[in-house]
From TrEMBL:
Name recorded for this polypeptide: Sphingomyelin phosphodiesterase 4
GO CC annotation, single: membrane
Membrane-protein topology: Single-pass membrane protein
One example GO MF annotation: sphingomyelin phosphodiesterase D activity
Any Pfam family hit: mit_SMPDase
4Fe-4S found in the keyword field: no
InterPro entries noted in UniProt: Sphingomy_SMPD4
Key words, A-Z: Membrane, Transmembrane, Transmembrane helix
Biological process, per Gene Ontology: ceramide biosynthetic process; glycerophospholipid catabolic process; sphingomyelin catabolic process
Length: 792
């Protein structure tokens, strides 16, 4: 870092800090514009770190900054911030370039690196050079020891590091119309242009060119991928000076921005660390927010658009031909930007999100990020085809992309299916996600391309080793005159295997997306759950329609309660009739697409739907979830859990203990409840054996005793509850219960009965005898005609 020789910068910084607490943002920005224009770089050098902290917040969280993620277009300060930070004409970027021309450095202690860079910090502390090229040649080794290591960034890197880190700081409440989200989009469009080139810096050093990092900086391109040509090979590595080609020195800003975004936002690990984190004992500290994932999706979409803007003649040129033709560094950057900068880290990022994200509708952000990456043909800048989405054929030119990103299609698709079978598909938002995935993979040619990629990966190793020397040697190097077709196939086999082994390790156990194992374990159960969920949605929707019709009829008489949603009691907004109709539509179309993807027989699907439909007609909603009986009660199976999640079946929820020991209700007299419990307990304890003997008799007296001493409705409900066998048998023993007499309703009825008896000149004893006789006759009649009543 440059050491100040004047005292004036310290007064300048002190004045700016004082103004930060007294002046409004507009006046502060106006003052900063004048200072940036009038002061030399040597004096601006000391205020730059403070200004960056004021804008983005400090790394330790003490300074909040301008809260870009909470600043929306409705705010009065929105336009001020956007103009100040604009990459084309903003004063902040002008300050960055002014300091960049003087080659100043700004240090960040490694212990202040965010948690997303823990893997980099661990490598540095262990004395190992991190695999991230962005941090190469930037370590500062002080004399005080290893623990105080610093990373020295140039002004542009320092600015972009803080800008990227602002996203992962603990702030909430942002959305896609925030100042931060719009700035990310603006910076991506400016530094990764789809048309033209990156505008040059307005400032230059004394030699007449912008000060860029050393040529060693571009070793980063060679460190990505396996056996692939190095980026900027012709323009950078073979040049004596970085200033020999002005275009070559300009592209470092585009690379720096992309690498900084990828390293900070796409939390990733080495393969060994990633495999360790699969253990359930290891706690994963990284948990991206929905806002974080939305910004990553914005990055993915723009990187695809940037890569697809490559000229067709440059895209089709071979690596060997490329080394002898003149192409700009920006075109070279577009050629390799996806595979070497984004592919590996995004895969680990998405796999982490797929495995740790809650099973709710917020997963839509992760899902759309994944679907955006695996559909680069959507971001070609061409006019959309007027054909419907399901009829659009994936062009053959994208076959190599599918093969080189095979795990993005197959592995993540399998993980999604495992999530889907554990999700409530009656919810319209969850049903929409299943439909979106099925619709994407049902695009013509995509399933065939994916299946072909799996076949290339599964090609035996001895065939690959037999072909490889012939495929990579030219005739002049001693190779045979192998057909170009064989060379292409050998090259693709090698790329697919390198891709899979590079991400999953040499000992990975690959599961085929179109194999019988996945089809039997996941695909068919998912289709079964979809069929059940759509029937449940239809049943609830029909019920909601009936309730709405009844309420509309009764409302003419003023008897209907107002319910704008026309939903069943306790329904969420997503469970109303309108949403359930959407659920049915989404699941219908998802079924069609899944059958198309896996080539399922339509006749078998129709049979499955009809079988499940017959179960629904037989009262499926009243049946228990699928479970097995054990000594400790009913135990749910995996099918039973999915039935409960999707609302297909459920257990009856009610009190399962001793009915006499239930909490005293508000409609009961507490004193009488306790008194009658003691009386009934004494009677049951003394005459319990006689009651059991009476109720065990198969004749009429046994049936009469069971009518008075057992609760048939309660026993039936208990059989359909997950209670242990011992508790169930104890609850079904015959016993006398006097607790109903403690109810205020019963007391009132008895009081009215005795008053009515008094009006008829009946004494209390006569009324009591009459009451007991009436109760006995009622029980007698119920016992005599019980069978006929059940049949009816």
């Amino acid at each position: 870092m440059a050491n100040p020789t004047l005292q004036q910068p310290s007064f300048l910084l002190a004045n700016l800090k004082a103004d930060a607490t007294t002046k409004p943002l507009l006046q502060r920005c106006q003052d900063l514009v004048k200072i940036i224009d009038e002061y030399p770089a040597k004096e601006l050098h000391l205020i730059f770190p403070w200004l960056v902290e004021c804008v983005f917040g400090s790394l330790d969280g003490v300074i909040a900054g301008w809260n870009l993620r909470l600043l929306h277009s409705r705010s009065n300060e929105y336009n001020i911030v956007m103009d100040f930070l604009n990459p084309r004409y903003g004063p902040m970027m002008k300050l960055v370039y002014k300091l960049q021309a003087e080659e100043y450095k700004y240090e960040i202690p490694i212990n202040y690196l965010p948690s997303c860079c823990n893997h980099i910090t661990a490598c540095i502390q262990e004395g190992v050079l991190p695999d991230c090229p962005l941090f190469h040649n930037k370590l500062q080794f002080p004399l005080s020891g290893l623990l105080t290591l610093n990373i020295a960034f140039n002004p542009f890197e320092f600015f972009m590091f803080n800008f990227a880190y602002c996203l992962i700081s603990p702030k909430y409440g942002s959305s896609t119309d925030s100042a931060y989200f719009v700035l990310v989009d603006t910076y991506l469009k400016y530094f990764l242009p789809t048309e033209g080139s990156v505008p040059p810096s307005p400032f230059s050093d004394s030699r007449g060119s912008v000060s860029a990092p050393s040529p060693r900086y571009y070793v980063s391109f060679a460190s990505y991928g396996i056996h692939s040509p190095s980026l900027l090979k012709h323009h950078i590595f073979h040049q004596p000076s970085v200033n020999a080609d002005p275009a070559a020195q300009e592209i470092w800003r585009s690379e720096t921005l992309l690498q900084m975004f990828v390293e900070i936002w796409l939390h990733h690990y080495s393969l060994e660390m990633y495999q360790k984190l699969q253990s359930p004992q290891v706690k994963e500290p990284f948990s991206p927010t929905e806002e974080h994932v939305l910004v990553v999706r914005l990055l993915v979409k723009h990187v695809h658009a940037f890569s697809n803007s490559l000229k067709p003649e440059q895209l089709s040129s071979s690596p060997s031909a490329h080394s002898h033709t003149h192409t700009s560094p920006l075109e070279e950057f577009k050629r390799v930007v996806v595979q070497r900068f984004v592919h590996q880290k995004l895969y680990l990022f998405l796999q982490h999100c797929f495995g740790h994200w809650p099973l709710d509708a917020s997963f839509r952000a992760v899902l759309e990020t994944w679907l955006s990456y695996i559909q680069p043909w959507r971001y070609t800048g061409e006019k959309p085809n007027p054909q419907p989405d399901q009829n659009r054929t994936v062009p053959e030119k994208w076959e190599s992309f599918v093969h080189e990103n095979l795990l993005m299609y197959t592995k993540l698709f399998q993980v999604f299916l495992n999530r889907a079978v554990r999700t409530d598909l009656v919810n319209a938002k969850n049903a929409l996600m299943v439909f979106r995935v099925a619709k994407v993979f049902a695009q013509p040619n995509l399933a065939e391309m994916t299946q072909k990629g799996e076949q290339l990966f599964l090609e035996p190793e001895h065939v690959l080793h037999h072909r490889q020397p012939r495929g990579y040697l030219t005739p002049g190097q001693g190779g045979s005159y192998l057909s170009s077709r064989q060379r292409v196939v050998t090259d693709m086999v090698f790329k697919v295997k390198s891709h899979v082994y590079g991400l999953e390790g040499q000992d990975c156990q690959y599961k085929q997306m179109f194999g019988t194992e996945l089809r039997g374990a996941v695909s068919l159960p998912l289709i079964q759950i979809i069929v059940q969920a759509r029937q449940t949605a239809k049943r609830i929707s029909d019920h909601s329609s009936e309730v709405a019709a009844n309420k509309s009829f009764l409302s003419w008489f003023g008897l209907g309660a107002s319910d704008l949603n026309h939903s069943f009691p306790g329904a969420e907004p997503e469970e109303t009739g309108e949403y359930l109709k959407k659920t049915h539509e989404f699941l219908d179309r998802a079924l069609e697409n899944l059958c198309q993807i896996f080539k399922l027989n339509q006749g078998q699907l129709n049979q499955l739907i009809s079988n499940l439909g017959s179960l629904e007609d037989d009262g499926n909603s009243k049946q228990l979830p699928d479970c097995v009986q054990s000594e400790n009660g009913l135990i749910l199976t995996d099918l039973g859990r999915r039935q409960i999640i999707n609302g297909l079946r459920r257990f009856d929820i009610h009190y399962q203990g001793d009915p006499e020991l239930q909490p005293i209700r508000s409609y009961e007299n507490a004193l009488l409840v306790r008194l009658f419990y003691r009386i009934s307990s004494l009677i049951n304890e003394r005459f319990g054996r006689h009651m059991n003997a009476l109720c065990s008799r198969p004749d009429f007296l046994g049936r009469l005793g069971r009518h008075y001493l057992t609760n048939l409705d309660s026993s039936t409900k208990l059989k359909h509850s997950p209670m242990s066998r011992h508790v169930l048998e104890r609850s079904q023993r015959p016993k006398l219960s006097l607790r109903p007499l403690a109810s205020y309703r019963t007391i009132l009825l008895l009081l009215l009965f005795y008053v009515f008896g008094a009006l008829l000149s009946l004494g209390p004893i006569s009324s009591t005898v009459l009451l007991l006789a009436g109760g006995f006759l009622y029980g007698l009649l119920m016992t005599l005609f019980a069978d006929k009543l059940k049949t009816h």
